[in-house]
Amino acid sequence: MAKDNIQEQINEINRKLDIVLEEVIAQRETRQSIEDLTSDLTIVGNDLFKTTVTELENAGIELDAEAVKQLLFRLLRNVETISEMFEMMESLSDLVKDVTPVLHQMGLDGIHMMNEFEQKGYVEFIRETMNVMDNVVTHFSVEDIRLLADNAVSILETVKSLTQPDMLKAINSGLVVYKSIEIEDVEEYSMWKAIKAMNSKEMKKGIGFMITFLKNIAKETEKAQKESL
User: Fold this and answer.
1) For 66, which DSSP code?
2) Contact (CB, 8 A) for 198 and 207
3) pTM for this entry
4) Which residue of 3, 30, 83, 215 has the fewest C-beta atoms within 10 A of its own C-beta?
5) How many CB atoms are located within 10 Å of the residue 125 CB?
6) Dmax over Cα atoms in the chain, in whole Å?
7) DSSP letter (8 states) at residue 187
8) Long-range contact list for 40-45, CB < 8 A, 24+ apart?
9) DSSP letters of 29-57?
10) What is the pLDDT of residues 203-218, one digit of tens each?
């Protein structure tokens, strides 16, 4: 019985030794593979370095080993910065992917809006407005525009006065009367007939209006002259 137990323990020890031995052999094979790979990479690296140096020399480029070393050191010192830069580039790429559909839709909306403006006549209106501006620039000098700017207040005051309801009514009445007169069928008046017509109430009122109008014009002109002095 004791012999059987001892034999079992020996067998267990041998089994474990076999496992350890297999692990040692595997590690040795792995180490050998790493050494072979390192040797091959060293050979390839040396060949690549020599080839690169030769190519640079043939191209007339001198490779400063010290400068390359300093560059490598700087890259190593700024690994974190370089990593942040790549993260920013990835974020920018994601932003472009997100914004591209929006910009595409905005472009389509802009095209539809321009098409709608053209159908409504806005484009043609702007084109004709530009023609008006061209005519203004062609027919007026810079000095004319300067004078217009200097007298803009007076012009606007005049326009303001003309657009008052009583003035618009008077102008409209004058236009109605003018349109109602047949120029070709106007009656001829002799001197005596004209003097006789001037005695009518309407003519007297009209003459009074003209005289009052001219007198007021003279007063305003005199007033403007005094203000300019």
Assistant:
1) H
2) yes
3) 0.33
4) 3
5) 11
6) 173
7) P
8) none
9) HHHHHHHHHHHHHHHHHHHHHHHHHHHHH
10) 888 888 888 888 887 8
